[in-house]
Specification:
CATH superfamily of the largest domain: HAD superfamily/HAD-like
Number of helices: 8
Shape: globular
Oligomer: single chain
Order of helices and strands: EEHHHHEHEHEHEHEE
InterPro entries: HAD-like_hydrolase_sf (IPR050155), HAD-like_sf (IPR036412), HAD-SF_hydro_IA (IPR006439), HAD_2 (IPR041492), HAD_sf (IPR023214), PGP-like_dom2 (IPR023198)
Number of domains: 2
Protein name: phosphoglycolate phosphatase
Radius of gyration: 17 Å
GO cellular component, one term: cytosol
Distance between the termini: 9 Å
Strand content: 5-15%
EC number: 3.1.3.18
Pathway: Organic acid metabolism; glycolate biosynthesis; glycolate from 2-phosphoglycolate: step 1/1
Length: 217
């Protein structure tokens, strides 16, 4: 049995519009000027802390009240985004059929830096949850990608053994390739995602279409 570890944003689906729109919704609530969504999209796949720091830098500039302001905007953002998580977000072509085939005789996991609650809800809304064995979000454990810890934890929970199983880490970012390499999984870079290059650490396999992932089985 193979274990397939998938990134979420930029690999299974494109959620940049909804995440950027959520930023502006929170900025409006905080009485901040709206920003060009094209600029906001640059920060939506770098983890939530990076999103807050870069998309609300003007709001967080007051060091005296930084912690309080950070918690306020975090709560506002997580609530709004959860309630509007799949307005414009969509799967990449061929992803549903590919996951359906992979899940028939293998285990399929999502390893993402998006919060787990939001990840599960998005997978449900996109009708992908039925193919997913388990989900590790950016808040599921003490570390997130590029750390291999989320992979190690979920692999152990589901009985993974290097002597019996093959592991593949599939994603569109340098963090995905680094995490997979550290876990000793076969690393697979998806060229259709948010990033035009896989980063300094070369993946072992590059795929240009989701259906090409079926060669792994």
């Amino acid at each position: 049995m193979n274990f397939f570890f998938f990134d979420l944003d930029g690999t299974l689906e494109d959620s940049r519009d909804d995440m950027a729109n959520a930023v502006n919704a929170v900025r409006e609530k905080l009485e901040l000027p709206l920003r060009d969504t094209k600029d906001l999209k640059k920060y939506v796949n770098k983890g939530m802390h990076e999103l807050y720091e870069n998309c609300f830098d003007d709001y967080l500039s007051d060091n005296m009240n930084y912690k309080l302001k950070y918690e306020n905007l975090k709560n506002y953002y997580e609530q709004y985004y959860f309630e509007n998580i799949c307005i414009l977000s969509k799967c990449y072509d061929e992803i549903p059929n590919t996951l359906k085939e992979l899940s028939k005789e293998n285990k399929v996991f999502v390893i993402t830096n998006k919060p787990e609650k939001h990840s599960r809800e998005l997978l449900k809304k996109l009708d992908l949850a039925k193919y997913i064995t388990d989900v590790m979000g950016g808040d599921s454990c003490s570390e997130m990608k590029p750390s291999p810890m989320p992979l190690k934890i979920v692999a152990e929970q589901h009985g993974f053994s290097f002597s019996k199983n093959k592991a593949f880490m599939i994603g569109d970012s340098a963090g995905d390739i680094q995490a997979g390499h550290a876990f000793q999984a076969t690393t697979v870079w998806c060229s259709w995602g948010y990033n035009s290059e896989p980063g300094s650490l070369a993946p072992q396999i590059t795929v240009n279409s989701p259906k090409d992932l079926l060669i792994l089985i």
